[in-house]
Amino acid sequence: MKKLISIVLILAMALSLAACGKSKPTTSNEPSDKSATKSEDTSKADTPKEDTAKEDTSSEAAKGPSGTVVVYSPHEADPLNAGINMFMEAYPDIQVEVVAAGTGELLNRVAAESANPIADVFWGGGADSLAAFKEYFSPYVCANDAVIEEAYKDPEDLWIGESPLPMVLFYNKELIERDNMTIPTSWNDLLNPEWKGKIAYAMPSKSGSAYTQLCTMLLGHGGKEDGWEFIEKLYDNLDGKILDSSGKCHKMVADGEFHVGITIEKSAVQYADNPNLGFAYPEDGTSAVPDGIALIKGAPNEENAKIFIDYVTSKEFQEAENRDWGRRPVRNDIEVTGMAKLSELVLVDYDFDWAAKEKEAIIERFNEIMVD
């Protein structure tokens, strides 16, 4: 559901200073209004007019960046709401306006608005989805470029990964033990007859993560052409049960409606405290396509957009993503908690450009398998 979030931060202290015109520079650690007024009176008595003018100038300079930044984001409530609040605390004079909707809807909106852009930043959505629309982005090398691996950046710097998302097999231990089955540890395990009708998977045409999972399985089981034999066998084992939303995959496994679901790591880790649920990184190769962030071409507030991108890739923010929202940081100078290190996973060589350029053809071929 499309929703519009407009977040406006008004600093009462700043308005007070503007009305006075001669007050001293203030910070968040300043005393109460009464103390500030007293300090101002002392200042008037002791400071010549020319010194006060200099002080006002320095106050303006000390305020830091100001203005507006418009963010389009398909992120769920967190990190979206919490992340915006963190940014506003760090940059209180920048007004943040957010439009939240699905990845495809927002990317199509960016394309439609390209002659007269409204948004400044696109934050979230799989990098393979962003790659398909990168003609609408401007190159930007963020301030944290040195600690982000090249695999998580566009070669032309048109998008930057902000949170890698490995694909996992999320399973219900209780159901598996009840039916004397073996916990799956690979994509190949899902082809076993015992899993027929017990696998939760979403339609790639409706889910960006399901599309990434489809490409991952293709690349890990024969490649762009020969991998379709594997997909045909997997679809047969779905037994006609395919979901219209990737968010349902982990929820329906947790609710006991499916034994195993193909989902994203960040969805699986939220059940870490439930002893009846678990997840595995496929031994025959997973992917870690990141959610991305990009500077929109012709952004009306380009400098503030760059500040926003730098903040989302900052150590402070990336640590919060991992600690508070169960998301994996993209920075290589942060130790992850609650999940395996990327260096410990078997990763396929994910081709972003192929996944972006051939998306329509790949989805069409999958749909043909469904109707055969």
Description:
It is built from 16 helices and eleven strands. The chain has three domains: 3-62, no CATH class; 67-165 and 289-339, Periplasmic binding protein-like II (D-Maltodextrin-Binding Protein, domain 2, 3-Layer(aba) Sandwich); 167-287 and 356-371, Periplasmic binding protein-like II (D-Maltodextrin-Binding Protein, domain 2, 3-Layer(aba) Sandwich). Strands 1, 2, 3, 4, 5, 6 and 11 form a seven-stranded mixed sheet that branches. A four-stranded mixed sheet has the order 8-9-7-10. The protein has 372 residues and is of the alpha/beta class.
Kindly state the number of beta strands.
11
- Oligomeric state of the chains? single chain
Helix-residue proportion: 40-55%
Span of the ends, CA to CA: 32 Å
Q: Give me the secondary-structure category.
A: alpha/beta
CATH-defined topology of the largest domain? D-Maltodextrin-Binding Protein, domain 2
What portion of residues belong to β-strands? 15-25%
